[in-house]
Hints:
Elements: H1 7-21, E1 24-25, H2 26-31, H3 53-67, E2 78-83, E3 94-102, H4 108-125, E4 130-135, H5 139-156, H6 162-169, H7 173-180, H8 184-187, H9 199-214, E5 220-221, E6 233-241, E7 245-254, H10 256-259, E8 269-277, E9 295-299, H11 302-317, E10 322-324, H12 331-341, E11 345-349, H13 351-356, E12 358-363, E13 368-373, H14 377-384
Parallel strand pairs: 1-2, 4-5, 9-10, 9-11
Antiparallel strand pairs: 2-3, 3-8, 4-6, 6-7, 7-8, 11-12, 12-13
Amino acid sequence: MPTTLLPSDVLKRAHAIGNYYGFAPLSTLTHARRGQTVKAPYPDGYTLDSFEPSAKEVVGLLKQVRDAGLTPSALQPLFFWHTNAAQGRPAPKQIVIQFHVLGVEHAIADAVLIRAVRALMQDLSKTDPKLRLNSMGDKETRSRYAREFSQFTRKHGATLPSECLEKAKDGNVIEAASVLTCMKDFVDMLPSPTDHLSEASRKHFEGVLEYLETTDTPYELAPDLLSHGNYWAETCFDLSIPGGNNNVHAWGSRYNELARPFFKTAVHSVGAVIRINTSNREPIAPVKERAAPRFVFVHIGDEAKRESMKMADDLRRARIPMTQAMGVASLSEQMRLAETHNPQYLLIMGRKEALEGNVILRERSTHTETFIPLASLIERLKVVA
Length: 385
């Protein structure tokens, strides 16, 4: 990360990335419910000291979401981001930024999350991050993997480190396997979770990969990338900066079971934790409030959503003031969210428009609609922006 990048710049860029990919600051969501917050203790059995660092960050954030009375669902999912860096306060030694999607089961949530985190890291480092990806599967997958790993430990027990054997004996299979991922003699011998995926997990992982491939997002399958504990599931990924730059790193995964005790019903959950090391301890300068977006992008169908993902970075780089609810499937919910922004224009794309390479520009005050080819969209929007 460039030494000239200030903590206030990090926040500014997180705001911008969140806006283009449809992630609202958690502070904005909780502020809208000011006076309705009811603080409650952590769920039974949830002791923060028992979680590894990334899980601890996520659990603390889930408590804030629950205490604010925010109730994610399939019809009204939550796309939000949060940070430990606060305007007007000294910058922490390590800035932590989290992006989360609550309420979306479909693989698009994983893909949108990965694209947003990748875009932020790319913006901060001016380098293309390296994306490594794996799947830990669901409970059925974990059971299959546990049996396979048990056979592995019986076969190689005499040469395995005691820490690995002890964790395996206690039933902490993922943690036991994680011990070996750092050991060259064993990493290539380890059983891979993707070889034991249940049918549901296989379809989900294939869906994530399809979104990444159709949006030209480079990735590397990493069988040795295991989750940090038994509470992570399905897709897991990390993003790092090539060349030994350890100042920016991200880890992400599904965590349905971790979130379950915070809500009345099971909530499909996926999130990422980005850690940014900084030497600047000065108070963080205020980030200028962004003007209301002039455009809101509404899309219906997988084809349109893939196009919107590919276009998000181009529109951001062109500084077109736009936002969208990329992972929200419901047209009515997207229109409801659009109303909250009160934009002058809507960009509308369905399956037909996506296949034909067009988008509809609708001026809300007159309901006038214009078909614009995607190849010339940015230039046309600059004219009306």
